[in-house]
Amino acid sequence: MELILWRHAEAEAGEPDLGRKLTGKGEKQARRMAEWLHAHLPDSTRILVSPATRAQQTARALAEVGHRKLRTVEALSPGAGPTELLAAVDWPDARAPIVVVGHQPTLGWVVSQLLGGGPPSWAIKKGAVWWLQSRTRDSETQVVLRAVVNPDLL
User: Which of 117, 107, 71, 113 is nearest to 92 (CA)?
Assistant: First the structure.
């Protein structure tokens, strides 16, 4: 299984939290990352998105570039735990690659849990992607870090 964790791009400050929108910089970050992802993702990739406006806007950039459908998943809301996220994506058993557009610290907790031995939560920059893959070698399930991409480097 391939799991692509995409933190929403830069968003405005303010309340209510779920209604915060992307800034101009955030829109550019989302667009650049969406173009990169589109060039690297297989057509079978599913996109699961937090209901927060900033996550929806980030994911919409990929939907527009790649003509892909989004699915909003409540378990990806701000404050969700890593267990809920991993259950929502059926880790490690899902057959198709999955892009999750979500939030810190949840995404960082997932990275820490899957890669093991790291800090309690990895810091994931706004708009960045962490691409993980599960595989089985010698009857052991392993997690491979395939890529970490920051939108400011694209």
Answer: 113
Q: Which structure tokens are listed for 133? A: 């893959």
d(CA 138, CA 86): 24
The C-alpha atoms of residue 134 and residue 144 are separated, in whole angstroms, by: 6
Q: What is the pLDDT of residues 122-137, one digit of tens each?
A: 999 999 999 999 998 8
The end-to-end CA distance of the chain, in Å, is: 25
Convert the pLDDT of each residue in 78-88 to its tens digit. 999 999 999 99
What are the pLDDT digits (tens) for 103-122? 999 999 999 999 986 668 89
Place of tokens 């990929």: 62
Amino acid identity, position 84: E
The encoded tokens of residue 63 equal 């939907």
pTM for the model stands at: 0.95
- Which residues sit opposite 147 in a β-bridge? 131
Domain 2-153 sits in which CATH superfamily?
Phosphoglycerate mutase-like (3.40.50.1240)
